[in-house]
Design brief:
Helix content: 25-40%
Structural class: alpha+beta
Strand content: 15-25%
Largest sheet: 6 strands, mixed
Shape: globular
Number of strands: 10
Order of helices and strands: HEEHHEEHEEEHEHEE
Length: 276
């Protein structure tokens, strides 16, 4: 079965069996009916995915890779904070009347900073260093800008990437302060696996390990029955991800540059409530 399945199931069982509930505490998130959205959680989960061996997508539940990549490109390539530039509706609840989510996510990646070599935004600085200074231990991004938090409609969850080149291999660490394990865990893993693969390809490197560090890995109370069903689903073989190898410029990638081969998975559609 898929390694992503194994990791996901292990995480979910660990949270359900050994997690800590916040049912006795006041919480910010609410369900659409106004009820507090409580969770059971584990602190400090760390997962490792070797992209040279397998693409880390679930088979026990479908992960919609085109929508994943579309959102990733919206943030990292378009550096946009407006839902009008996004093809899905996943950000609609956090957008204002003009479609803006404030100074969050893509906005932060697009802000330029001065360096000895010139001005770069965070994405272009990573691309520059991977090609010109791959031995650097400073190749990283961070969108958790405290000065702008009051102008963000949602604080960043997946907020930092650290890249490290070992020989001819690019590895990365994704830091996430909070992860809704049912709705967003594999979504984020797939996105940042693709990002690592893109950065490696345009830098003449191989994609290696993605390490996912989650501070607060939680399951919402209304998600527990769904989780219990999903983790008992048949586990299938991981598909292969095909990437257009002709692309050498990060900004030339599109959603159509990627194709999953032999993706077989649990096709059941779940009515999953989302806490706000």
């Amino acid at each position: 079965m898929s390694l992503a399945d194994e990791i996901f199931i292990s995480n979910m069982r660990d949270i359900l069996e050994h997690g800590v509930s916040d049912a006795h505490l006041p919480v910010r998130p609410r369900w659409s009916d106004g009820t507090p959205a409580h969770t059971v959680k584990k602190f400090g989960i760390v997962n490792r995915y070797d992209l040279s061996k397998e693409f880390p997508i679930l088979t026990i539940r479908r992960t919609y890779i085109r929508s994943c990549i579309d959102e990733l490109l919206w943030i990292w390539q378009k550096k946009s904070n407006n839902i009008k530039d996004l093809h899905s509706k996943i950000w609609n609840q956090w957008a204002d009347e003009n479609g803006s989510i404030g100074k969050a996510y893509g906005y932060q990646l697009g802000v330029k900073h001065k360096y000895a070599e010139g001005e770069f935004d965070q994405v272009d600085r990573v691309l520059y260093d991977l090609k010109n200074n791959p031995s650097s231990r400073r190749i990283m991004t961070n969108i958790y800008n405290f000065a702008d938090l009051n102008e963000m409609n949602l604080y960043p969850c997946a907020y930092s990437m650290t890249f490290n080149v070992s020989g001819d291999t690019l590895n990365g660490i994704l830091n996430q302060r909070s992860n809704d394990m049912l709705t967003a865990n594999n979504w984020n893993v797939v996105q940042y696996a693709v990002l690592l693969i893109m950065f490696a390809q345009v830098s003449g490197l191989k994609a290696g390990e993605l390490v996912h560090v989650i501070a607060d890995a939680h399951i919402y109370d209304r998600h527990i029955p769904i989780i219990k069903e999903i983790i008992e689903m048949p586990r299938l073989t991981a598909p292969k991800l095909e990437v257009d190898k002709s692309i050498t410029n990060f900004y030339d990638f599109t959603v159509d540059s990627f194709r999953l081969v032999d993706y077989k998975c649990n096709e059941k559609k779940y009515d999953i409530p989302v806490a706000e």
